[in-house]
From TrEMBL:
Membrane topology note: Multi-pass membrane protein
Pfam families listed in its UniProt record: SLAC1
Signal peptide: none
Keyword Transport: yes
Major subcellular location class: membrane
Protein name in UniProt: C4-dicarboxylate transporter
Length: 363
């Protein structure tokens, strides 16, 4: 029996995968972040079938993404190290933290799995520690650094999103475990929430300065700029959950005016960004005619929309603001449409990559 053809085909496929992983974006876990938050928002609004379906899709995506990342580390360690030293690509690794936190929240809220949630919270915390002190140390001590306008974008705020994802999952786990661990976990979540807010202020100051005092081209307005809003949305979600947890943590009761004030501050800041980002998107694609095609970074635009839906609903519950209840369903529909478009773009992009070598061979 002749087995040479199947073997050659298998080797060719492996070579394609290996070469394709060389340039894999560190921010690709944004796909799991986006899928997870749309699922959670759907669950919060009673769309159980959608929430459950997206939970299982996300669990599969999360596993596949980890396999791809580990293969890339094995096959292309030099490329991974280069990314960790790159001011624009390094923050993308924080999507592994946020994706772990979001999937852990799905495990707890959608699948009612406390064990799965605790496991993923531990994974997220370990990744947060490793990436925070690895990436920022390497960026500080490297000898050659880019100027501000070439070295920072909205992707830097993924560090804030990662921090708040750990805080959100921590507050939710705290509602399911006994004292004194409940008290300790709430305190840790509060500390992470505060640190995430401080980090946003530092980074957003630099990003806004870059916006207004350096030349800004359509190519500079990459999808991660939506994280400007998404970082505030997840901070709102964490703050709202801390407010809801206050009856079980006396120190939170004493801080309630402060927590409520900052939670509204975060929500208001995130809300301000939405019209601004829409205007800039119209300028980029409508006025400047920048081509609209699939980019893995677009998942970083889907996540903030879904998060805004979820955080607004939780803020409504935490602070008894009934006039906010009309917002979450609208943003859930928008997030679902954006997710469907991004997923369709992913499928078409993969099909194009598979067909391209075949067309080249026939030619």
């Amino acid at each position: 029996m002749d087995t040479s053809a199947p073997t050659g085909s298998s080797d060719n496929l492996r070579d394609k995968l290996r070469e394709g992983l060389r340039g894999l974006s560190p921010a690709y876990f944004g796909m799991a972040m986006a899928t997870g938050i749309v699922s959670l928002s759907a669950h919060m609004q009673g769309w159980e079938w959608l929430a459950t379906t997206l939970f299982w899709i996300n669990a599969s995506l999360y596993g596949v993404l980890w396999v791809l990342l580990l293969l890339r580390i094995t096959w292309h360690p030099g490329a991974v190290r280069t990314d960790l030293l790159d001011h624009l690509r390094a923050p993308g690794f924080f999507t592994t933290v946020a994706a772990s936190g979001v999937l852990g929240t799905q495990c707890l809220v959608v699948a009612d799995s406390l064990g799965g949630a605790i496991t993923l919270w531990c994974v997220a915390l370990v990744l947060w520690l490793l990436l925070t002190y690895t990436i920022f140390t390497m960026l500080v001590v490297k000898t050659e650094k880019p100027p501000l306008d070439q070295g920072i974008n909205g992707g830097w705020l993924l560090a804030v999103v990662a921090t708040q994802a750990v805080a959100v999952l921590g507050t939710l786990i705290a509602t399911r475990i006994p004292q004194p661990y409940r008290l300790e976990l709430n305190f840790f979540a509060l500390s992470m929430w505060l640190w995430g807010g401080m980090l946003y202020i530092w980074m957003m100051s630099l990003i806004f300065y870059r916006y207004t005092f350096f030349r800004f081209s359509p190519a500079d307005l990459s999808p991660p700029y939506w994280i400007n809003m998404g970082a505030m949305a997840i901070s709102t979600l964490a703050g709202s959950q801390l407010i809801l947890n206050a009856p079980h943590a006396p120190f939170l009761e004493s801080l309630l005016p402060f927590i409520k004030g900052f939670t509204v501050f975060y929500w208001a800041t995130g809300s301000w960004w939405i019209p601004m980002l829409i205007v800039l998107a119209v300028w980029r694609h409508g006025v400047m005619r920048f081509p609209l095609r699939y980019d893995p970074l677009y998942w970083g635009a889907v996540f903030p929309i879904g998060m805004y839906s979820a955080c607004t609903l939780r803020l409504h519950e935490a602070m008894a603001l009934p006039f906010l209840d009309r917002i979450p369903p609208v943003f859930l529909v928008i997030a679902l449409c954006a997710w469907a478009l991004a997923f369709t773009g992913l499928v078409l992009d993969l099909l194009a990559r598979v067909r391209a070598p075949a067309r080249a061979t026939r030619a």
